[in-house]
């Protein structure tokens, strides 16, 4: 029994318990080993019950059997219950249903037969249920659905057949279900879909075909489903999707094709899906994204591309996704990203780049995505993040960085300081040094700047001249002893500790050129402050 089934049963149990606490029990008219509520609801759950009780009151509208030992349903099972509107038969031991079981139930609108060892449904079983709106026959052992099973249930709005062993669908099986809104055929053994399977379901909103054995979907299969809003094709054996497969699905909002074997996508395959908000193509074998593949998806909010074989992201591929909020690129083979890879994603709040092979990031990679809240970069090959990358992330809440190749030498100093200043964002306790050898495996939380062994600068063209400290209207000139380091990439790092009250002006001179920078801190209390400057030759 899968999780969906368990959750469904739990929900039903909660509803039943609610009846028990809020309704009166009519012991004088209730069948043995059952509970009755409001005079019209009967709930039976006892493994000693082996058949439908004969003394169910005639005015009962709701009948529920849960975990009994009923083995079959016969023509007389509900003979005296012509007021029934709802029957639930869940987790019993039903293995046979007579064709005339449900005759004489003109008001029945809701029928569920789930989690039973039932393997056969006879052709005329539902012939008299002309008012039926909801039919759930799930998690049984049914292998075949008779071609005329639904010919008289024309008012059906929900039909759920998931979790059986159905291997094929008759052409025209659903031809009379013009009012159907939701069809669930998931978790069966369907390998082929007749091209006209759904052509009469013009009001269908949700179609679930996931977890079957479908190898291809013929062009035209969805042509009449212009009102469809959700389509799930996950967990099948699709190797390709034809260009016009989704062309008529102009109302579609959610499309999921996860866990198939798709290797390439036609560049026009999504071009008509202007209302799409969720697109999941994870866990396939896609190696590249063709130019224009996402053109026309201006309303897309979630794009899931994880678990493929992408090695790079083509320039401008996301350019028209101005409303995209979540982008998943995890578990690919991406080695590098151009600085403008995410151009056009001004609404992006979550990006997942973990479990790739990224060795470096450009400092402007997130320049156009200033609304980012969450960045996932763990399990890559990153050695350091460029210093300029942080300035583009004013709204950052979380950046996940563990399991990379962090190289804790002098070039790592700015990154180390930034992480320590942003502990609430970086999850710093999980980050370890990969090298140099003397720091391998050392937690970043224990790392000091002196551990990075930055060489003191011997370059005489750089020196700290003076620091002017201003507090109110009084200005004091303080000579400060500052340390400077020359990194391996030629950048000069100057580190000073001074007492700052309200503001500080820093003058850095190179020969006859002077550069002045001012800082203002919050509060008026004087306190020691660490200042660090990086000067890079260009």
UniProtKB/TrEMBL annotation:
UniProt keywords, alphabetically: Glycoprotein, Leucine-rich repeat, Repeat, Signal
Entry superkingdom: Eukaryota
InterPro entries with a match to the protein in the record: Cys-rich_flank_reg_C, Leu-rich_rpt, Leu-rich_rpt_typical-subtyp, LRR_dom_sf, LRRNT, SLRP
Record GO cellular component, one term: extracellular space
Residue span(s) of domain LRRNT: 29-62
Membrane-spanning intervals of the chain: none
Residue stretches making up the LRRCT domain: 404-455
Signal peptide annotation: 1-27
Pfam families: LRR_8
Protein name in the entry: LRRNT domain-containing protein
Organism for this UniProt entry: Engystomops pustulosus
